[in-house]
Task: structure prediction
Amino acid sequence: MKMLKVITVPFLAALLSFSGLANAELIKVLDFEELTDALGEGNWDSPLEVETSVEGLTVVLEVASGYLYLDKGAGLGNCQSDSGCAKNPDDNFNVGEMFTFTFMADGAVFTPEGATLQAVAHDYEGFFAGSLADMSDGGEWALDDSTIYTYSEGESFSMTVTNGEFYIAALWIDDGALPPQGIPEPANLALMALGIFGLVASRRKFAK
Result:
């Protein structure tokens, strides 16, 4: 019975880990059209730290030159003009422009295993709408008539436009890569209860 008690906790931990992996899915942590509604359309200084949909998780947005530009009806772009790009077609990401983002959890850098950006054309027109590019491993991604190169750089994720132009509509990450949250999932609660029951039962049998 001593062995039963010893292996119960590691086995429970393995079950909880497996449950987390089984329930993992891609979730949107930042929608740039919603951010535009909240902050307003126009130029924003780089870097800019904003809240995500996950409590305690923020993301620092940065462009290599110019300003971050929030465009109503499209998303995030890059404006090189101090006076703004409201009537300027170059308010999106163009060839040679670079975008970097870094996640922060409770004030400290948090690096998920991977991240995905959603690229769109203006006003979500055509096939280009909803195109996704994985930032994890790096490489070139063809997004309709545009091409970007993505890479993970230490604690940050970056992309450079190599052809065409586009906006960034949203950032996504796998919820299995999220920082620990205070409230366990229902499946995890059930497994925890099962593990506790096993510990109590083993102790009772050993006491006899």
About this structure: The CA atoms of residues 5 and 203 lie 7 Å apart.
